[in-house]
Amino acid sequence: MAEKSQQKSEESFVRQRRGPQRQTPKQKNDIYVNKQSDFKFQLERAQKLLDSGWNEVFIHGLGAAINRAVNLALQLEQEGHGSIQISAQTSSTQVVDDFRPLDEEQESYSETRTKSSIKIKVYKICTDESGVLTKT
Prior knowledge:
Order of helices and strands: HEEHEHEEE
Organism: Paramuricea clavata (Red gorgonian)
InterPro entries: Alba-like_dom_sf, Pop7/Rpp20
Distance between the termini: 60 Å
Number of strands: 6
CATH superfamily of the domain at 28-101 and 110-125: Alba-like domain
CATH topology of the domain at 28-101 and 110-125: Translation Initiation Factor IF3
Pfam family, one: Rpp20
Helix content: 25-40%
Mean pLDDT: 85
Number of helices: 3
Subcellular location: Cytoplasmic granule; Nucleus, Nucleolus
Largest sheet: 6 strands, mixed
Radius of gyration: 21 Å
């Protein structure tokens, strides 16, 4: 019964999702993936960064975009034919939803949710004079 009353009250609010706060400023070699991201464009962008002198690219995904971020990194690794490696770091990220009332008599409120996130380092590797693989 409590669920119905809570659901009914939530219907009288409009939810606005805030974007997650970044821990560090965005760099040129950071690629943030979401569900609406153009996969082909982001793949081309990452490849251009690696081809233009960047030794590493960081791909970030949050929630439902994690699968897309992983696929992007794996595609780059596959197209690198052994010259690209990846490493992933997972974490949890706090996001905030603001609820604005449709009725002026009610007050706004916010809720915090925890979402899974991933940061994938895509980096070039090369061989030294003896043929041993090393990071660039």
